[in-house]
Amino acid sequence: MTIKQSDHGTVPFWRDERYLQIIAQVVVVSALLALGYWLTHNLLTGLEALGTPLSFKFLGLTAQFDIGEKLIDYSRNSTYLRALTVGLLNTIKVSFLGILFASLFGIIVGIARLSKNWLVNKLATIYVETLRNIPLLVFLIFLSSSVFHKLPRVKDALTIGKYAFLSNRGIYITWLTPGQGWGLYKWFLLIALVAGIILATIKFKEGQRTGRMPLYWLWGLGLFAAIAAVTWGLTLLMAGNPLALNVPYKAGRNFKGGQSLSPEFMAIFVGLVIYTSAFIAEVVRAGIQSVSKGQREAATAVGLTGFQTMRLVIFPQAMRVIIPPLTSQYLNLTKNSSLAIAVGYPDLFAVGSTIINQAGRAVEVILITMGVYLTFSLLTSVFMNWYNQHTRLVER
Amino acid sequence: MTTLSSSQEILPPPSERKTLQGWLLKNLFGSVADTILTILAGSFLIWLIYVIIKWILVTAKWAAVSDNLQLYMKGQYPGSADWRIWTLMILLGLLSGLAWGIYLKRAEAVGWVLLIVVLILAFWMTILHRAAWWKLVAVDVVAIAGYFLGKQFPEKLKRPTYILMLLYMPLVILMIRGFGEGGFMPLVTTNLWGGLLLSLLLAIFGIVFSFPIGVLLALGRQSKLPALKTLSVLYIELIRGVPLVTLLFMGQLMLPFFLPQGISIDRVIRAVVAIIMFAAAYMAENVRGGLQSIPKGQGEAADALGLSGYQKMTFIILPQALRAVIPVLVGQFIGLFKDTSLVALVGLLDLVGISRSVLANADYIGRQLEVFAFIALIYWVFSYGMSYSSSRLETALGVGER
Questions:
Q1: Which chain A residues touch B356 with a CB distance below 8 Å?
Q2: In the CATH hierarchy, which top-level class contains the domain B193-360?
Q3: Is the ipTM of this complex over 0.90?
Q4: What is the mean pLDDT of the segment spanning A214-234?
Q5: Which residues from chain A sit within 8 angstroms of residue B199, using beta carbons?
């Protein structure tokens, strides 16, 4: 059906929706631009009046403060930029380890919440409902002040078979240190890793081709372990012990050797792991429950075992539901790591606020910090979009 | 329905009958692995309960909590102005009672549970020899009176209740803050607000003021106009990508710079602005979820009836979308209530902030465990209570199902 527009009665442009829309947008955008200009102008003139105009040159000045934990070389004489990098690396460290362990605990608790065993089920429910309903900050301060700083003194440190010590100076665990053969062995390890990945990929492809998916990751892991074990012996003969146990021991008022984990790190790490695992548990539970009952029954009917049902039928379908909220939990964990400032762990935000106090560069430091977190989250959402495109159900 | 003589009920097969033995066998000792799990979990639970009870009754010294109850509840809010808080509480009781009686004919159980919780609190107050117990009872009595009034005269009271609800928020600000020197409601500056009072106020302000902004942003994100859409998406993603702490610090340190020189705003308002900015972005995403859940046919039907874009939104789309997101909004409110604890990091004396200052007192050194257990309990009771009662209400009323 077509309506002929009469030539002599056109709609005037102020009644024409197309024009109106453009006009509305122009008005809104220019109003916002004006507001933005006004705010920025105020900011710049305000900073100017204080004698600290907006500039990032201060990043090159010496920081003149110490940072307790660092993954790269840093001293009082390093620059502010270096200090921020140390903080950033600490953030990445605690987030990475936190995500790893939170996923592990979360999956365990999530499966426990679906357990047929009434007691296990209820215990998992209590765990989840307790943690989800208290603020992370309260939990962190509690862990820091009542657990990790309340551990016994070095003199009466708790010990686990002499291989780990828990004291208020931190936790010292046995660690591996490179021995004489390490220079050689690390190449062997690399070869083992590559070989393992290649075998896993081959098995995975084979599974996709034949429709009988083998335990490809177990194959890869097995090959890796085998090569690693054989070359260990080889290295031992050729160049000496590749890795030595480094057991911590008491030395005066502190411990020596081993790997030390400070109370501050433990507080933020354990806090983030336990807190986030409660949320991940809910995500996992919802994901598994989203797979319809018929799928499980069908799997049982064709004779799959319980483990096979989980691996081949339930999990692949649950993953599609689990991954998006799981990623946002990972992102939450990363953002929540900024609460490290409450327990004294020098993450990006804590270092940033020290710089604010010392150099008075509030605006610049806040902008940098926000920019970094924003980058994390943008990277995550890029990944998420890719994943969604990848695993979307293809519907007719 | 089959007809059977009432004396002969069909018993389920023996394996399905509900007996204690059967229940135990099915739920706890189904297999060897199950039995081991049960024993492990059971002994852990018994040990945990033993440790906790022993700590609560024997080891813990509760002076740091019981001496400072007033501080935890309302910070340094002056005692002479206490009556304003209580008046507001009683008014709140009346309003909830009225609303319950008028709008919610079902789901009575939840209401009674809420009333009983208040009574338990009152009972606890009498144990602590606090005079406040009768005021709590008064809140309950007024709520029950409101409930029956509302049930009796739903039509007559609908309008006044509605107006009262709208007026309640401004009234809260007005009464908590007060005005002028002297007079019957002298000004109480915001630096005296604290404790649970401040935490709750921050959360309520955050959710109420972020609501309209969030709805606008959600509409902007759905809009066909490219400029509006880009701006909304930018704002939402920007805010959601940074931690709340950075926004709070921005509010405290940068906000003063954004305003013309000479204008200063107080710290609580700065925190509120940051919280509103933060909550609005999340609100927008929640509302968007609701907007997307409305079938396309609704909008098309509105178009077919000749409604304008504005009418279509306000009369057709938004009412349905907002109704659908009520459960999510309760969840967001709980999250925000927990998040308000972060204002302690910028030096406000909310529940966490006031606990820290109590612990700085030499009399209570080393009593962190007691204090943090106590405030964790407060947060837990509020959060769990809200999520529990809202989920019960949802099932009773079928919210989000239609």
A1: 141
A2: mainly alpha
A3: no
A4: 87
A5: none
